[in-house]
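Next up, a specimen:

>
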Amino acid sequence: MKALRGDGSASRTGGEQPASAVTSVRKTGALAIFALIFLALAALGVRVALLEVVDRPRLLAWADNQQTGELPWSARRGFIVDRRGRVLAGTREQESLFADPSMIDDVPGAARLVAPVLGLPPDQVSQTLRSRANRRFAWLARLLDETQAAELRRLRVPGFGLIQECRRTYPSGSLAAHVLGFVGRDGIGLEGIEARYEKHLAGVAGRRRILRDAARRAICLLEDRSDPPRHGHHLVLTLDSVIQMYLEEALAGGLAKFEAESALGIVMDPRTGDVLALACLPTYDPNAFNSAGPDTRRNRVLTDPVEPGSVFKPFVGCVALAERMVRLDEQIFCHNGLYVTGKRELHDVRPHGWLTFEGIIAKSSNIGMAIVGQRLGNVRMHHYLKAFGFGEPTGVGLPGESDGLLMPLSKWNSYSTTSVPMGQELAITPIQLISALCAILNDGVLLRPRVVKAILTADGRPLETFAGPQERRRVLPVDVARTMARQVMVSVVTAGTGKQAALANYQVLGKTGTAQVPRRDRRGYEEDAYLSSFMGAAPAGDPRVAVLVMIRKPRSALGYYGGRVTAPVAREVLAKTLAYLKIPPDGETESLALADADG
Protein backbone atom coordinates (compact mmCIF):
# COMPACT_ATOMS: atom_id res chain seq x y z
CA MET A 1 0.00 0.00 0.00
CA LYS A 2 1.14 3.52 -0.67
CA ALA A 3 2.76 5.46 2.19
CA LEU A 4 1.15 8.67 3.13
CA ARG A 5 3.11 11.85 3.75
CA GLY A 6 2.16 14.39 6.30
CA ASP A 7 0.05 16.35 3.87
CA GLY A 8 -1.95 13.26 3.11
CA SER A 9 -0.62 12.76 -0.46
CA ALA A 10 0.80 9.52 -1.62
CA SER A 11 4.57 9.46 -2.32
CA ARG A 12 5.93 8.50 -5.93
CA THR A 13 7.82 5.24 -6.01
CA GLY A 14 9.09 2.76 -8.68
CA GLY A 15 9.71 3.71 -12.54
CA GLU A 16 7.49 6.71 -12.78
CA GLN A 17 9.27 9.82 -14.38
CA PRO A 18 8.45 13.46 -14.08
CA ALA A 19 6.42 14.94 -17.03
CA SER A 20 9.20 17.44 -17.89
CA ALA A 21 11.66 14.64 -18.49
CA VAL A 22 9.35 12.93 -20.94
CA THR A 23 8.82 16.16 -22.82
CA SER A 24 12.55 16.73 -23.06
CA VAL A 25 13.17 13.31 -24.55
CA ARG A 26 10.45 13.86 -27.09
CA LYS A 27 11.92 17.19 -28.15
CA THR A 28 15.37 15.67 -28.57
CA GLY A 29 14.02 12.90 -30.82
CA ALA A 30 12.13 15.37 -32.96
CA LEU A 31 15.21 17.49 -33.36
CA ALA A 32 17.20 14.48 -34.43
CA ILE A 33 14.59 13.57 -37.01
CA PHE A 34 14.48 17.14 -38.28
CA ALA A 35 18.26 17.17 -38.44
CA LEU A 36 18.30 13.98 -40.45
CA ILE A 37 15.63 15.33 -42.80
CA PHE A 38 17.56 18.56 -43.15
CA LEU A 39 20.76 16.74 -43.89
CA ALA A 40 18.99 14.56 -46.42
CA LEU A 41 17.45 17.59 -48.08
CA ALA A 42 20.77 19.39 -48.01
CA ALA A 43 22.48 16.39 -49.58
CA LEU A 44 19.72 16.22 -52.16
CA GLY A 45 20.13 19.92 -52.81
CA VAL A 46 23.84 19.53 -53.25
CA ARG A 47 23.25 16.63 -55.57
CA VAL A 48 20.74 18.63 -57.58
CA ALA A 49 23.20 21.50 -57.71
CA LEU A 50 25.94 19.16 -58.90
CA LEU A 51 23.61 17.74 -61.56
CA GLU A 52 22.51 21.20 -62.68
CA VAL A 53 25.92 22.83 -62.67
CA VAL A 54 28.74 20.34 -62.76
CA ASP A 55 27.24 17.28 -64.47
CA ARG A 56 24.75 19.13 -66.70
CA PRO A 57 26.88 19.29 -69.86
CA ARG A 58 27.84 15.62 -69.61
CA LEU A 59 24.29 14.48 -68.95
CA LEU A 60 22.85 16.64 -71.72
CA ALA A 61 25.40 15.27 -74.13
CA TRP A 62 24.55 11.73 -73.06
CA ALA A 63 20.82 12.35 -73.48
CA ASP A 64 21.40 14.07 -76.80
CA ASN A 65 23.47 11.15 -78.00
CA GLN A 66 20.70 8.73 -77.05
CA GLN A 67 17.92 10.72 -78.68
CA THR A 68 19.66 12.18 -81.75
CA GLY A 69 22.13 11.09 -84.37
CA GLU A 70 24.42 12.59 -86.99
CA LEU A 71 24.50 11.41 -90.58
CA PRO A 72 26.48 12.59 -93.62
CA TRP A 73 24.61 14.89 -95.99
CA SER A 74 25.96 14.47 -99.50
CA ALA A 75 26.53 17.49 -101.70
CA ARG A 76 24.93 17.21 -105.12
CA ARG A 77 27.60 16.96 -107.80
CA GLY A 78 27.34 19.66 -110.44
CA PHE A 79 25.93 18.87 -113.88
CA ILE A 80 28.04 18.72 -117.04
CA VAL A 81 26.20 20.02 -120.10
CA ASP A 82 27.15 20.60 -123.72
CA ARG A 83 27.34 24.03 -125.33
CA ARG A 84 23.54 24.01 -125.92
CA GLY A 85 22.63 22.92 -122.40
CA ARG A 86 22.07 19.21 -123.07
CA VAL A 87 22.92 17.12 -120.00
CA LEU A 88 25.94 14.88 -120.45
CA ALA A 89 26.48 14.05 -116.77
CA GLY A 90 23.83 14.43 -114.08
CA THR A 91 23.12 13.46 -110.49
CA ARG A 92 20.36 11.21 -109.16
CA GLU A 93 19.49 10.58 -105.52
CA GLN A 94 19.49 6.95 -104.34
CA GLU A 95 19.22 5.41 -100.89
CA SER A 96 22.08 3.74 -99.04
CA LEU A 97 21.90 1.42 -96.01
CA PHE A 98 23.73 2.17 -92.77
CA ALA A 99 23.65 0.64 -89.30
CA ASP A 100 24.26 1.62 -85.67
CA PRO A 101 26.02 -1.58 -84.51
CA SER A 102 25.78 -0.59 -80.83
CA MET A 103 21.97 -0.78 -81.03
CA ILE A 104 21.80 -4.27 -82.55
CA ASP A 105 21.44 -6.94 -79.86
CA ASP A 106 20.95 -9.95 -82.11
CA VAL A 107 23.60 -9.51 -84.81
CA PRO A 108 23.13 -12.92 -86.51
CA GLY A 109 19.36 -12.49 -86.56
CA ALA A 110 19.57 -9.01 -88.04
CA ALA A 111 22.07 -10.20 -90.63
CA ARG A 112 19.74 -13.01 -91.70
CA LEU A 113 16.98 -10.47 -92.36
CA VAL A 114 19.07 -7.90 -94.20
CA ALA A 115 21.56 -10.03 -96.17
CA PRO A 116 19.10 -11.52 -98.73
CA VAL A 117 17.92 -8.05 -99.72
CA LEU A 118 21.51 -6.96 -100.32
CA GLY A 119 22.44 -10.15 -102.12
CA LEU A 120 25.17 -10.87 -99.57
CA PRO A 121 25.93 -13.89 -97.35
CA PRO A 122 24.61 -13.39 -93.77
CA ASP A 123 28.07 -14.18 -92.37
CA GLN A 124 29.55 -11.26 -94.31
CA VAL A 125 26.96 -8.83 -92.90
CA SER A 126 27.53 -10.20 -89.39
CA GLN A 127 31.28 -9.77 -89.74
CA THR A 128 30.84 -6.18 -90.89
CA LEU A 129 28.62 -5.37 -87.90
CA ARG A 130 30.93 -7.05 -85.37
CA SER A 131 34.03 -5.35 -86.75
CA ARG A 132 32.34 -2.00 -86.14
CA ALA A 133 30.67 -2.86 -82.83
CA ASN A 134 32.06 0.21 -81.07
CA ARG A 135 30.87 2.64 -83.72
CA ARG A 136 27.56 4.44 -83.97
CA PHE A 137 27.59 4.53 -87.80
CA ALA A 138 28.66 2.00 -90.43
CA TRP A 139 27.87 1.73 -94.15
CA LEU A 140 26.47 -1.62 -95.24
CA ALA A 141 25.44 -0.98 -98.85
CA ARG A 142 25.66 2.11 -101.04
CA LEU A 143 23.30 3.31 -103.76
CA LEU A 144 20.59 0.66 -103.54
CA ASP A 145 18.00 0.18 -106.24
CA GLU A 146 14.37 1.08 -105.54
CA THR A 147 13.29 -2.53 -104.92
CA GLN A 148 15.99 -3.09 -102.29
CA ALA A 149 15.21 0.19 -100.53
CA ALA A 150 11.47 -0.58 -100.43
CA GLU A 151 12.06 -4.05 -98.96
CA LEU A 152 14.36 -2.67 -96.24
CA ARG A 153 11.77 -0.06 -95.31
CA ARG A 154 9.20 -2.83 -95.01
CA LEU A 155 11.42 -4.93 -92.73
CA ARG A 156 12.16 -2.02 -90.32
CA VAL A 157 15.04 -3.88 -88.66
CA PRO A 158 16.08 -2.03 -85.45
CA GLY A 159 19.51 -0.42 -85.69
CA PHE A 160 19.38 -0.05 -89.50
CA GLY A 161 18.47 3.03 -91.52
CA LEU A 162 18.36 4.44 -95.04
CA ILE A 163 19.90 7.72 -96.18
CA GLN A 164 19.78 9.59 -99.48
CA GLU A 165 23.03 9.76 -101.45
CA CYS A 166 23.85 11.22 -104.85
CA ARG A 167 24.78 8.96 -107.76
CA ARG A 168 26.46 10.15 -110.96
CA THR A 169 24.59 9.27 -114.14
CA TYR A 170 25.42 9.66 -117.82
CA PRO A 171 22.10 9.81 -119.71
CA SER A 172 23.70 9.48 -123.16
CA GLY A 173 25.71 6.40 -122.22
CA SER A 174 29.04 6.23 -124.01
CA LEU A 175 28.66 9.56 -125.84
CA ALA A 176 31.79 11.69 -125.22
CA ALA A 177 33.00 9.19 -122.62
CA HIS A 178 36.68 10.04 -123.13
CA VAL A 179 36.02 13.72 -122.49
CA LEU A 180 33.72 13.24 -119.50
CA GLY A 181 35.62 10.47 -117.70
CA PHE A 182 33.72 8.95 -114.78
CA VAL A 183 33.10 9.07 -111.03
CA GLY A 184 33.95 6.20 -108.68
CA ARG A 185 31.57 4.72 -106.10
CA ASP A 186 33.03 7.03 -103.48
CA GLY A 187 31.86 10.03 -105.52
CA ILE A 188 35.29 11.22 -106.66
CA GLY A 189 36.06 11.95 -110.32
CA LEU A 190 38.67 9.55 -111.63
CA GLU A 191 39.25 10.50 -115.26
CA GLY A 192 38.48 13.17 -117.83
CA ILE A 193 36.57 16.34 -116.99
CA GLU A 194 35.23 14.65 -113.85
CA ALA A 195 38.77 14.38 -112.48
CA ARG A 196 40.16 17.66 -113.85
CA TYR A 197 37.33 19.76 -112.34
CA GLU A 198 36.73 17.66 -109.22
CA LYS A 199 36.97 20.66 -106.85
CA HIS A 200 34.35 22.58 -108.80
CA LEU A 201 31.96 19.69 -109.40
CA ALA A 202 32.06 17.95 -106.02
CA GLY A 203 30.81 20.65 -103.67
CA VAL A 204 31.19 20.35 -99.88
CA ALA A 205 29.28 17.73 -97.88
CA GLY A 206 27.17 18.70 -94.85
CA ARG A 207 25.87 16.88 -91.74
CA ARG A 208 22.29 15.93 -90.81
CA ARG A 209 21.14 15.89 -87.15
CA ILE A 210 18.11 13.66 -86.69
CA LEU A 211 15.79 12.74 -83.79
CA ARG A 212 15.63 8.99 -83.16
CA ASP A 213 13.22 6.66 -81.41
CA ALA A 214 14.22 3.94 -78.92
CA ALA A 215 15.19 1.61 -81.78
CA ARG A 216 17.50 4.30 -83.19
CA ARG A 217 15.22 4.82 -86.18
CA ALA A 218 15.07 8.31 -87.61
CA ILE A 219 11.91 10.22 -86.68
CA CYS A 220 12.57 13.67 -88.11
CA LEU A 221 15.30 16.01 -89.29
CA LEU A 222 16.49 18.67 -86.83
CA GLU A 223 16.93 21.38 -89.42
CA ASP A 224 18.16 24.06 -87.01
CA ARG A 225 20.99 21.79 -85.89
CA SER A 226 22.04 20.51 -89.34
CA ASP A 227 24.76 21.83 -91.65
CA PRO A 228 23.42 21.79 -95.24
CA PRO A 229 25.88 20.88 -98.01
CA ARG A 230 27.24 23.32 -100.56
CA HIS A 231 26.31 21.79 -103.90
CA GLY A 232 28.83 21.58 -106.73
CA HIS A 233 29.27 23.94 -109.65
CA HIS A 234 28.02 23.10 -113.14
CA LEU A 235 30.26 22.92 -116.23
CA VAL A 236 29.28 24.03 -119.72
CA LEU A 237 31.45 22.29 -122.31
CA THR A 238 32.41 23.41 -125.79
CA LEU A 239 31.21 20.05 -127.11
CA ASP A 240 28.02 19.78 -129.12
CA SER A 241 26.23 16.48 -128.53
CA VAL A 242 24.93 16.29 -132.09
CA ILE A 243 28.36 16.83 -133.65
CA GLN A 244 29.78 14.36 -131.14
CA MET A 245 27.24 11.80 -132.32
CA TYR A 246 28.12 12.47 -135.98
CA LEU A 247 31.81 11.93 -135.24
CA GLU A 248 31.32 8.72 -133.25
CA GLU A 249 28.99 7.23 -135.87
CA ALA A 250 31.39 8.03 -138.72
CA LEU A 251 34.36 6.60 -136.82
CA ALA A 252 32.42 3.43 -136.00
CA GLY A 253 31.59 3.00 -139.69
CA GLY A 254 35.23 3.38 -140.74
CA LEU A 255 36.41 1.07 -137.97
CA ALA A 256 33.99 -1.65 -139.06
CA LYS A 257 34.55 -1.23 -142.80
CA PHE A 258 38.32 -1.63 -142.59
CA GLU A 259 38.32 -4.06 -139.64
CA ALA A 260 40.75 -1.76 -137.83
CA GLU A 261 42.17 -1.91 -134.33
CA SER A 262 41.03 1.55 -133.20
CA ALA A 263 40.00 5.00 -134.38
CA LEU A 264 39.91 8.54 -133.05
CA GLY A 265 38.69 11.91 -134.20
CA ILE A 266 38.41 15.57 -133.25
CA VAL A 267 36.20 18.37 -134.55
CA MET A 268 37.27 21.93 -133.70
CA ASP A 269 36.24 25.51 -134.42
CA PRO A 270 39.48 27.01 -135.81
CA ARG A 271 38.42 30.56 -134.96
CA THR A 272 38.08 29.97 -131.21
CA GLY A 273 39.86 26.73 -130.38
CA ASP A 274 36.59 25.21 -129.13
CA VAL A 275 36.59 21.40 -129.31
CA LEU A 276 33.18 20.56 -130.77
CA ALA A 277 33.65 16.79 -130.59
CA LEU A 278 36.33 14.35 -129.47
CA ALA A 279 36.09 10.56 -129.63
CA CYS A 280 38.12 7.38 -129.28
CA LEU A 281 36.93 3.95 -130.42
CA PRO A 282 36.52 1.41 -128.94
CA THR A 283 34.70 3.34 -126.26
CA TYR A 284 32.94 2.54 -122.97
CA ASP A 285 29.92 3.52 -120.88
CA PRO A 286 30.84 5.70 -117.87
CA ASN A 287 27.77 4.30 -116.08
CA ALA A 288 29.58 0.94 -116.01
CA PHE A 289 33.22 2.01 -116.25
CA ASN A 290 34.48 -1.13 -114.48
CA SER A 291 33.46 -3.20 -117.47
CA ALA A 292 36.17 -1.52 -119.60
CA GLY A 293 39.91 -1.88 -119.16
CA PRO A 294 42.41 0.99 -118.78
CA ASP A 295 43.42 0.82 -122.46
CA THR A 296 39.83 1.34 -123.58
CA ARG A 297 39.27 4.21 -121.13
CA ARG A 298 42.48 6.03 -122.09
CA ASN A 299 41.97 9.24 -124.06
CA ARG A 300 44.43 8.52 -126.88
CA VAL A 301 43.79 11.94 -128.43
CA LEU A 302 45.85 13.37 -125.56
CA THR A 303 47.96 10.54 -124.21
CA ASP A 304 49.34 8.62 -127.21
CA PRO A 305 51.85 10.44 -129.42
CA VAL A 306 52.12 8.98 -132.92
CA GLU A 307 54.53 9.29 -135.82
CA PRO A 308 52.29 11.33 -138.13
CA GLY A 309 53.64 10.56 -141.59
CA SER A 310 52.57 12.63 -144.60
CA VAL A 311 49.80 14.49 -142.77
CA PHE A 312 52.70 16.49 -141.27
CA LYS A 313 53.97 17.84 -144.61
CA PRO A 314 51.96 21.12 -144.69
CA PHE A 315 53.72 22.38 -141.56
CA VAL A 316 57.19 22.03 -143.06
CA GLY A 317 55.73 23.45 -146.26
CA CYS A 318 54.66 26.56 -144.33
CA VAL A 319 58.20 26.95 -143.00
CA ALA A 320 59.60 26.81 -146.54
CA LEU A 321 57.15 29.48 -147.74
CA ALA A 322 57.74 31.71 -144.72
CA GLU A 323 61.51 31.50 -145.16
CA ARG A 324 61.21 32.00 -148.93
CA MET A 325 63.04 28.76 -149.65
CA VAL A 326 60.50 27.80 -152.31
CA ARG A 327 58.07 29.46 -154.65
CA LEU A 328 54.59 28.07 -155.02
CA ASP A 329 54.95 27.41 -158.74
CA GLU A 330 58.61 26.37 -158.60
CA GLN A 331 59.38 23.08 -160.35
CA ILE A 332 61.34 20.59 -158.22
CA PHE A 333 62.69 17.33 -159.63
CA CYS A 334 61.50 14.32 -157.62
CA HIS A 335 63.92 11.79 -159.16
CA ASN A 336 61.26 9.48 -160.55
CA GLY A 337 60.60 7.77 -157.22
CA LEU A 338 64.18 7.07 -156.01
CA TYR A 339 66.41 9.66 -154.33
CA VAL A 340 69.82 8.79 -152.94
CA THR A 341 71.24 11.21 -150.39
CA GLY A 342 74.39 10.15 -148.64
CA LYS A 343 73.93 6.54 -147.55
CA ARG A 344 70.16 6.82 -147.60
CA GLU A 345 67.63 5.87 -150.27
CA LEU A 346 64.24 7.61 -150.28
CA HIS A 347 61.20 6.39 -152.21
CA ASP A 348 57.81 7.69 -153.27
CA VAL A 349 54.71 5.51 -153.41
CA ARG A 350 54.36 6.52 -157.05
CA PRO A 351 57.26 7.90 -159.10
CA HIS A 352 57.20 11.59 -159.96
CA GLY A 353 59.48 13.64 -162.18
CA TRP A 354 59.08 17.42 -162.05
CA LEU A 355 56.45 18.74 -159.61
CA THR A 356 55.62 22.22 -158.43
CA PHE A 357 55.93 22.84 -154.68
CA GLU A 358 52.12 22.83 -154.54
CA GLY A 359 52.13 19.53 -156.43
CA ILE A 360 54.64 18.00 -154.00
CA ILE A 361 52.19 18.43 -151.14
CA ALA A 362 49.13 17.60 -153.24
CA LYS A 363 50.71 14.36 -154.48
CA SER A 364 52.42 13.76 -151.11
CA SER A 365 55.92 13.25 -152.50
CA ASN A 366 58.41 12.15 -149.84
CA ILE A 367 61.36 12.93 -152.11
CA GLY A 368 60.11 16.44 -152.88
CA MET A 369 59.66 17.20 -149.14
CA ALA A 370 63.12 15.77 -148.35
CA ILE A 371 64.65 18.19 -150.88
CA VAL A 372 62.69 21.06 -149.30
CA GLY A 373 64.03 19.98 -145.89
CA GLN A 374 67.58 20.08 -147.17
CA ARG A 375 67.04 23.64 -148.38
CA LEU A 376 65.65 24.71 -145.01
CA GLY A 377 68.13 23.03 -142.71
CA ASN A 378 67.52 21.78 -139.21
CA VAL A 379 67.66 25.10 -137.36
CA ARG A 380 64.80 26.74 -139.26
CA MET A 381 62.62 23.64 -139.19
CA HIS A 382 63.10 23.04 -135.48
CA HIS A 383 62.35 26.68 -134.59
CA TYR A 384 59.04 26.75 -136.48
CA LEU A 385 57.89 23.32 -135.35
CA LYS A 386 58.38 24.37 -131.74
CA ALA A 387 56.36 27.49 -132.49
CA PHE A 388 53.54 25.30 -133.86
CA GLY A 389 53.34 23.70 -130.40
CA PHE A 390 54.91 20.32 -131.14
CA GLY A 391 56.80 18.96 -128.13
CA GLU A 392 54.65 20.72 -125.51
CA PRO A 393 51.12 20.23 -124.09
CA THR A 394 48.37 22.28 -125.70
CA GLY A 395 46.72 23.06 -122.34
CA VAL A 396 43.34 21.82 -123.56
CA GLY A 397 42.15 21.35 -119.96
CA LEU A 398 41.95 17.56 -119.78
CA PRO A 399 44.17 15.34 -117.59
CA GLY A 400 46.90 13.08 -118.92
CA GLU A 401 48.04 15.20 -121.86
CA SER A 402 51.42 14.17 -123.27
CA ASP A 403 54.18 16.52 -124.42
CA GLY A 404 54.72 14.44 -127.52
CA LEU A 405 58.28 14.00 -128.76
CA LEU A 406 60.19 16.67 -130.65
CA MET A 407 63.86 15.89 -130.11
CA PRO A 408 66.16 18.78 -129.11
CA LEU A 409 67.95 20.41 -132.03
CA SER A 410 71.25 19.00 -130.73
CA LYS A 411 69.88 15.49 -131.38
CA TRP A 412 69.00 16.18 -135.01
CA ASN A 413 71.33 15.03 -137.81
CA SER A 414 71.36 14.72 -141.58
CA TYR A 415 68.77 11.94 -141.39
CA SER A 416 66.49 14.30 -139.47
CA THR A 417 66.78 16.87 -142.26
CA THR A 418 65.05 14.53 -144.71
CA SER A 419 62.94 12.47 -142.26
CA VAL A 420 61.13 15.25 -140.38
CA PRO A 421 59.59 16.80 -143.55
CA MET A 422 57.99 13.38 -144.21
CA GLY A 423 56.56 13.20 -140.68
CA GLN A 424 59.14 10.81 -139.25
CA GLU A 425 61.57 11.01 -136.30
CA LEU A 426 58.99 12.79 -134.14
CA ALA A 427 55.82 11.84 -132.27
CA ILE A 428 52.89 14.18 -131.82
CA THR A 429 49.51 13.85 -130.17
CA PRO A 430 46.33 14.21 -132.23
CA ILE A 431 45.32 17.28 -130.19
CA GLN A 432 48.67 18.92 -131.08
CA LEU A 433 48.14 18.09 -134.74
CA ILE A 434 44.68 19.64 -135.08
CA SER A 435 45.73 22.65 -132.98
CA ALA A 436 48.60 23.28 -135.38
CA LEU A 437 46.23 22.89 -138.36
CA CYS A 438 43.93 25.49 -136.79
CA ALA A 439 46.90 27.86 -136.52
CA ILE A 440 47.21 27.70 -140.31
CA LEU A 441 43.44 28.15 -140.71
CA ASN A 442 43.42 31.06 -138.24
CA ASP A 443 45.78 33.20 -140.35
CA GLY A 444 48.90 31.92 -138.59
CA VAL A 445 47.87 32.40 -134.93
CA LEU A 446 48.11 29.40 -132.60
CA LEU A 447 45.20 29.19 -130.15
CA ARG A 448 44.84 27.16 -126.99
CA PRO A 449 42.21 24.46 -127.55
CA ARG A 450 39.53 24.19 -124.87
CA VAL A 451 36.71 21.90 -123.80
CA VAL A 452 35.15 24.04 -121.03
CA LYS A 453 33.08 27.05 -122.06
CA ALA A 454 31.84 28.22 -118.64
CA ILE A 455 31.57 27.35 -114.95
CA LEU A 456 28.22 28.07 -113.27
CA THR A 457 27.26 28.20 -109.61
CA ALA A 458 24.88 25.60 -108.17
CA ASP A 459 21.94 27.93 -108.84
CA GLY A 460 23.02 28.59 -112.44
CA ARG A 461 24.78 31.95 -112.16
CA PRO A 462 27.99 32.45 -114.21
CA LEU A 463 31.08 31.97 -112.06
CA GLU A 464 33.70 31.94 -114.79
CA THR A 465 33.34 32.15 -118.57
CA PHE A 466 35.79 31.56 -121.41
CA ALA A 467 34.28 33.51 -124.27
CA GLY A 468 37.07 34.77 -126.53
CA PRO A 469 39.87 32.73 -128.11
CA GLN A 470 43.06 32.40 -126.08
CA GLU A 471 46.04 33.20 -128.28
CA ARG A 472 49.31 31.46 -127.59
CA ARG A 473 51.50 33.08 -130.26
CA ARG A 474 51.77 33.98 -133.92
CA VAL A 475 53.48 31.24 -135.89
CA LEU A 476 53.21 32.36 -139.53
CA PRO A 477 52.65 35.52 -141.55
CA VAL A 478 49.05 35.91 -142.67
CA ASP A 479 49.84 35.54 -146.38
CA VAL A 480 51.75 32.28 -145.85
CA ALA A 481 48.94 30.77 -143.75
CA ARG A 482 46.29 31.73 -146.31
CA THR A 483 48.35 30.42 -149.22
CA MET A 484 48.81 27.06 -147.55
CA ALA A 485 45.17 26.74 -146.46
CA ARG A 486 43.28 28.22 -149.39
CA GLN A 487 45.47 27.07 -152.24
CA VAL A 488 47.96 24.31 -151.44
CA MET A 489 45.71 22.23 -149.13
CA VAL A 490 42.74 22.80 -151.42
CA SER A 491 44.71 21.21 -154.27
CA VAL A 492 45.19 18.09 -152.11
CA VAL A 493 41.42 17.57 -152.28
CA THR A 494 40.80 18.78 -155.83
CA ALA A 495 43.78 17.16 -157.58
CA GLY A 496 45.75 15.12 -155.04
CA THR A 497 45.49 12.30 -152.53
CA GLY A 498 42.45 13.69 -150.68
CA LYS A 499 39.85 13.54 -153.45
CA GLN A 500 37.53 11.30 -151.41
CA ALA A 501 37.09 14.12 -148.89
CA ALA A 502 35.46 16.39 -151.49
CA LEU A 503 31.93 17.74 -150.94
CA ALA A 504 29.48 18.93 -153.59
CA ASN A 505 28.53 22.27 -152.02
CA TYR A 506 31.64 23.13 -149.99
CA GLN A 507 35.27 23.45 -150.94
CA VAL A 508 37.23 21.19 -148.58
CA LEU A 509 40.92 21.64 -147.80
CA GLY A 510 43.04 18.95 -146.22
CA LYS A 511 45.96 16.56 -146.14
CA THR A 512 46.17 12.78 -146.07
CA GLY A 513 48.70 10.66 -144.21
CA THR A 514 49.75 7.02 -144.14
CA ALA A 515 52.39 6.19 -141.54
CA GLN A 516 53.93 2.88 -140.58
CA VAL A 517 53.36 1.86 -136.96
CA PRO A 518 56.65 1.75 -134.97
CA ARG A 519 57.47 -1.38 -132.99
CA ARG A 520 57.16 -1.06 -129.24
CA ASP A 521 59.81 -3.63 -128.32
CA ARG A 522 62.61 -2.59 -130.69
CA ARG A 523 63.54 -0.20 -133.48
CA GLY A 524 61.82 -0.37 -136.83
CA TYR A 525 58.20 -0.76 -137.87
CA GLU A 526 55.56 -3.44 -137.49
CA GLU A 527 54.99 -5.46 -140.62
CA ASP A 528 51.81 -4.61 -142.52
CA ALA A 529 50.65 -2.11 -139.85
CA TYR A 530 49.67 1.46 -140.70
CA LEU A 531 48.12 4.60 -139.23
CA SER A 532 45.79 6.23 -141.75
CA SER A 533 45.04 9.94 -141.25
CA PHE A 534 43.19 12.86 -142.73
CA MET A 535 43.01 16.41 -141.43
CA GLY A 536 40.94 19.04 -143.16
CA ALA A 537 38.44 21.88 -142.94
CA ALA A 538 35.63 23.66 -144.77
CA PRO A 539 34.61 25.99 -146.28
CA ALA A 540 38.09 26.68 -147.62
CA GLY A 541 37.51 30.41 -148.06
CA ASP A 542 36.47 30.89 -144.41
CA PRO A 543 37.12 27.67 -142.46
CA ARG A 544 34.45 27.13 -139.81
CA VAL A 545 34.94 23.45 -139.02
CA ALA A 546 38.24 21.57 -138.76
CA VAL A 547 38.39 17.79 -138.44
CA LEU A 548 41.06 15.17 -137.80
CA VAL A 549 40.46 11.43 -138.26
CA MET A 550 42.95 8.65 -137.51
CA ILE A 551 42.34 4.93 -137.97
CA ARG A 552 44.97 2.57 -136.59
CA LYS A 553 45.88 -0.72 -138.24
CA PRO A 554 43.16 -1.03 -140.88
CA ARG A 555 43.20 -4.44 -142.51
CA SER A 556 45.66 -3.85 -145.32
CA ALA A 557 43.85 -6.07 -147.79
CA LEU A 558 40.91 -3.65 -147.60
CA GLY A 559 43.10 -0.56 -147.99
CA TYR A 560 45.32 1.47 -145.69
CA TYR A 561 46.11 4.77 -147.41
CA GLY A 562 44.70 7.84 -145.69
CA GLY A 563 42.98 8.98 -148.89
CA ARG A 564 40.97 5.76 -148.98
CA VAL A 565 40.44 4.97 -145.30
CA THR A 566 40.05 8.26 -143.41
CA ALA A 567 39.19 10.90 -146.03
CA PRO A 568 35.64 9.47 -146.53
CA VAL A 569 35.08 9.44 -142.75
CA ALA A 570 36.14 13.09 -142.51
CA ARG A 571 33.88 13.94 -145.46
CA GLU A 572 30.88 12.44 -143.66
CA VAL A 573 31.63 14.40 -140.47
CA LEU A 574 32.13 17.66 -142.36
CA ALA A 575 28.97 17.27 -144.45
CA LYS A 576 26.71 16.62 -141.45
CA THR A 577 28.35 19.24 -139.24
CA LEU A 578 28.24 22.03 -141.82
CA ALA A 579 24.56 21.34 -142.49
CA TYR A 580 23.76 21.15 -138.77
CA LEU A 581 25.51 24.47 -138.09
CA LYS A 582 23.70 26.00 -141.11
CA ILE A 583 26.92 27.27 -142.64
CA PRO A 584 26.19 28.59 -146.14
CA PRO A 585 27.67 26.56 -149.02
CA ASP A 586 30.49 28.03 -151.11
CA GLY A 587 29.07 30.57 -153.54
CA GLU A 588 26.31 31.58 -151.14
CA THR A 589 28.64 33.17 -148.59
CA GLU A 590 29.64 36.03 -150.89
CA SER A 591 26.05 36.72 -151.99
CA LEU A 592 24.87 36.73 -148.39
CA ALA A 593 27.61 39.18 -147.46
CA LEU A 594 26.57 41.50 -150.31
CA ALA A 595 22.92 41.23 -149.25
CA ASP A 596 23.86 42.17 -145.68
CA ALA A 597 25.86 45.14 -146.96
CA ASP A 598 22.94 46.32 -149.12
CA GLY A 599 20.44 45.80 -146.31
The first strand starts at residue 68 and ends at 73. The chain has two domains: 69-93+167-237, 241-286+303-598.
